[in-house]
Amino acid sequence: MRLEDETLFEQEVEKLIEEIHSQYGYDFSGYARASVYRRVKRFLGQKHLQSINELRARLFSDSFFFENFLQEVTVNVTEMFRDTSFFLSLRQNVLPILSTYPYIKIWDAGCSTGEELFSLAILLEEEGLLSRTKIYATDINQKVLRQAKEGIFSATNMPAYTSSYYAAGGKREFSSYYTSNYGSVKFNSSLVKNVVFYPHNLATDTSFNEFHLIVCRNVLIYFNRQLQERVLTLFDESLVSLGYLALGKKETLAMSGINGSYNFVDKSNRIYRKTN
Amino acid sequence: MAASNKLIVIGGSWGGIQASINVLSELPANYSIPVILVLHRLRNEEGSLPEIFDKKLKLKAVEVEEKEPLLPGHVYLAPANYHVLLEKDHTFSLDDSELENYSRPSIDVTFTSAADVFNENTVGILLSGASRDGSSGLKYIFENSGEAIVQNPSEAEVATMPQAAIDSTPACKIMRVAHIQQYLLTLHDLGRTY
Fold this sequence. Notes:
The complex is a heterodimer. By secondary structure, chain A is α/β, with parallel strands linked by helices.
């Protein structure tokens, strides 16, 4: 886009963000703009829409279309055992400590379509902790939550996931966790028997429980500093003393007001532990 | 250090590490324009690239951290498995969305974002590589009145990437690495006269 067009486009997106907030209650004002603009452009292209006005008309007349928009604009790209070193570290450094608790509560915040959730559940299962763990899997988007609950993923990714599983310290036959069917695989529903799926908006909702571990990876990168601080404070309020917080590889507490009450458990994998 | 109103973005893949070291090695530590470097890397590969560059260059080489401001005298390397975007306030945003041209980081993503923020003050440079990533981003820079520079394919270790860019932006400047390096030094001198 030319400079003038780009400026106009951005102004229109800003207006749309306000309208979405008043119409649907989703507040994107704290989202990092470079990504929002890029996602909206991409969505316009996918749907063959010529302008923000066309997009607006569809968004406010069709709630399914809006749900689709929500899914595309909030990035939902994920994979099983992403950053295998993170899962290995969780297995070696965090789960042994958590195993000393009679029951364990985990919050998978921004669980998207569930790949990370099933990876976590498999880890817990292999460490003998799954039956006494309750996982709260939340996302802003109800559509991806329904997908996460199903645990059905494309079979084309399985070779990559299988090698990631072993790199993350997998102890069994990876294929024992799922059944294959017509190009897709379904993970055993016993893995998510103790999972509560729950719509939760990090931008606007409050703390709803206390956890021993909060996993929120590659979500904060989409927020501005202010919203990041809100979310980190929310996590701080939701962690038990000596609880663990796991962020994405490129996310940090360094700039946050809560930083002083956390120590690194694993710096390169951004696993923190609350000190008080 | 004062913020720069100009930006250099460099992309490369196979052969791009050596080519970009050659392009950047003579730039002084106080070079007036920030440099972003997007090189295709193995997925999930860990660090080390910034250390390699830091040893070879006078400029300070670091991996991009989200929300960090762009500063002169720095070369910012795109981290493995993230796209690098720029905000209007000249800070970085990272993005882990879909691969573009089978790549994350993608050169197209960063070039496009750079042009949206720096417009005609963007200098895009595409080096050796076995991919077509970067072509449409370089074209976008050119269309927004920025500078589009491509390594001469005859000297590139793999010509695919520069050739694809020349095909899509025939009016780009085709230069040898030594010439690109000289040109970047000229930009520094121009910057200092302000």
